[in-house]
Amino acid sequence: MGGYELGGKNKIKNWAGCFAFALPAIFFYCLFLVVPILSTVKISFHEWNGAAPYMKWVGLDNYIRVFKDPIFYKALGNNIIWILFTIFIPVMLGLIFAVILTQKFVKGKFIYRLTYFMPNVVSLVAVGIVWGWIYNPEFGVMGNMFRSLGLNGLADIDYLGDEKLVIWFLLIAGSWTCYGFNMVVFLAGLQGIDSTYLEVARLEGANPVQKFFYVIVPLLKGTIVMLVSNSLIGSFKVFDLIYVMTKGGPYHSSEVIATYMYNSAFGMNEYGYGSSLAVILAVIIAICAGIFMKLTDKDNT
Amino acid sequence: MKRKWKMLTGLLIVSMLLAACTPGSSSDGNAPKEDTAKEEKSDTADGGQIELNFWDLRTEGAGAEMIDKLIENFEKENPDIKVKRTAFKVDDLRNTIKPAINSGEGPDVFSYDAGAGYLGVLAKAGLALDLTKYREEYNWDDRFHDWAIEKTVYDDGFYGIANELEMLGVFYNKKIFADNNIEIPTTYEEFLSVCKTFKDKGITPLIMDDKEQWPGFHYESIWLNSFVGADKVKQAIAGEIPWTTEGFGSALDELYKLFESGYTSEKPLSLAYEDANKAFYADGGAMRVTGTWQVGAFAEKMGENVGFFYLPTASDDVDNCPPGGLGEAVVVNSKTKYEEAAVKFVDYIFQMDNMEYWYEAGLIPSVKDVDYSSYEISELFQDVVDEINSSENLGENIDVIMPPKVNDVTKNFIQQLIAGKIDGASCMEQKQKAFEEEIEAGNYSVE
User: Is A252 near chain B, with CB under 8 Å?
Assistant: First the structure.
């Protein structure tokens, strides 16, 4: 507020002016975000089948049931696997591809960048359908490929039907969609690195690996933090890919909280229970994001 | 000057906000009035055209063509009514219908599972229109089978028309059977030996899939029906005997034996329903266990090369009542603006003159006394209809009657059973537990 002091009255008016400008945004924010969140919380304290005009108040019963539900823990476990995997693998792949693509010896960078980024623009539903075909037990490319290579052991795996392996095969499909985005962000981050650092490192006799770990990675820390927190939140919300490919099956083996929540509310008519799962999911995400932000703040100072 | 400008913008924003609010409130308050006025006009005079939204489950094949044809004819006869059809997959419709009706955006007419856990819930919540007065007006009692009418009665109200009969059984590839000199099995033992013969020759005996989880419902119904019999299954459905009664669990163990012995598709849990059908068309197996809603598609793809039989009963003590049930009911939204037109459309679909379309699409509507002798129907469909007519009674297709939670448990335990994780007895324990919970929660009633 350059140069002059505002009086008390002016300050209020100024605030009111700002508020007036922010009002449309606040209005829509409330309408589409705050109101639904509050009504979800409200439904979570009730028993409701989604159709009846009355909801029955049950207090914390839904929450107690969630914490006693083995399927909830199975889903939470899968979510955690999903998070750990999608935080590290796609971010790492993105970084490696980005660094390779900035090297001088790579020809046709545009083509590579386009190819790697392409999966990211495809909707997850389409990705799910296509990967479903790849894993298809009758005509899937994956099985045929392994068979023609003589790897019958790998070809005989029931990719989406084996309770222990299904989540990992879903993760491969999931990672495929997001490493391209990470790569593009890293490419932008790499543009921002002053070339003198790399020049100095080269003069000091650092080999490419040392350059990568001691110069590039520390300088990209901000980008890495941003991408990790981004995929942290994204991974908790994972739904579409799993819903399209397995619906959480076979027998809940690939269930995540979001699919379980959807199935509880819309499939089993238990809107209250589904809402309480949604609330718990939101709380978990908030806690994780909070902890993560705290940790990285400390590091930055 | 500056202040004035600020006030002006402030006012502008407020008025914009108000403008943004009003459409919402006016559509709740005023719009229906306008629409009823419109409706009256179109019903009485030849004024504006009205559009009925119709959601159904026929996404492809002869059934979809049939319904399009019926709509086309209906529109010709009623130039003031237009029908907009949207086809859904079963799960998608089940999951969207309630929020859609509640929000006032729902279809005027839709197909929905007739069971207590589905249509029953809508009926109790007042989301489905009670058609009792039209039942008399259109004389539906004379046109439909009694058992079809009974299916959609809840608390003395009549909430829809159960549309078609779906039987569960085994389709077989006639050429593969003939090439291997195999006859249609008449006992369960013969059925097993047929499976064994095919397996020994390197032919997949049974194409069975359960990726989507609902095919599992049918396997459960078929095997329970064959082993404990339709009467006991009916008693369990009515809550007279528990699902854990002796024989129920071991029926599922028999089902598992097929998977265990390698008589079925290799990876049933990741095999999708449509892919399994494609494998059957491509001679990828000798038999396909599914239901008669596939008759149209199978006849179209395989011509005369496909036949149908019911799974033989396991012993002579069990009556030969093939399992089957009514697919869905055609229901009218209680919030529809065009009640008369919607009911007129529902009635039209089932008029006797239109039965030819149903039969030629390979579907068995719930309309009685249809003389299908002059219709051009496939040999396969002829087989199916004759078999139904020759069976004394019908068994039950369990999932269309059960409440949602029982079905959800069933989906999962059948997959576990197929994977060899649990035995039939513990499946039935889970079913009984969910069944009791749903009764207690008021989602299912046993008389």
Answer: yes
Q: Flag whether pLDDT at A35 surpasses 70.
A: yes
Question: Is the Cβ pair B270, A158 closer than 8 Å?
Answer: yes
Per-residue pLDDT reduced to its tens digit, A265-289: 887 888 899 999 999 988 988 888 8
d(CA A86, nearest CA chain B) in Å: 24
Torsion of CA B130, A271, B53, B152, to 10 degrees: -30
Asked if the C-beta of B415 comes within 8 angstroms of chain A's C-beta atoms, the answer is: yes
The span from the CA of B215 to the CA of A1, in Å, is: 69
Q: Which residue(s) pair with B47 in the sheet?
A: none
CA atoms of B221 and B323, how far apart (whole Å): 7
Q: Which residue's entry shows tokens 């980005």?
A: A98
- DSSP 8-class letter at A204: T
pLDDT in tens, B28-68: 333 333 344 334 444 444 457 889 999 988 887 778 888 99
Each as own residue / partner, the long-range contacts of residues B238-242 (CB below 8 Å, 24 or more positions apart, any chain) are B238/B446, B238/B447, B239/B435, B239/B439, B239/B446, B240/B446, B242/B432
The DSSP H or E segment spanning B116 is: none
pLDDT at B205: 92
Dihedral through CA B243, CA B245, CA B246, CA B251, nearest 10?
-20
Cα–Cα distance, B100 to B336 (Å, whole number):
12
Report the SS3 class of residue B83.
strand
Task: Give CA–CA dist B90/B58, Å, rounded.
Answer: 9
Contact B404 A139 (CB under 8 A): no
d(CA A1, CA A296): 32
DSSP-assigned letter for residue A211:
I
What pLDDT is attached to residue A1?
A: 44
Q: Could you give the ipTM of this predicted complex?
A: 0.77
Dump pLDDT digits (tens) for B248-271: 999 999 999 999 998 998 888 888
User: Tokens representing B337?
Assistant: 């603006």
Short-list A78, A262, A76, CA closest to A164: A78
Distance, CA of A301 to CA of A110 (rounded, Å):
37
State residue B134's pLDDT score.
92
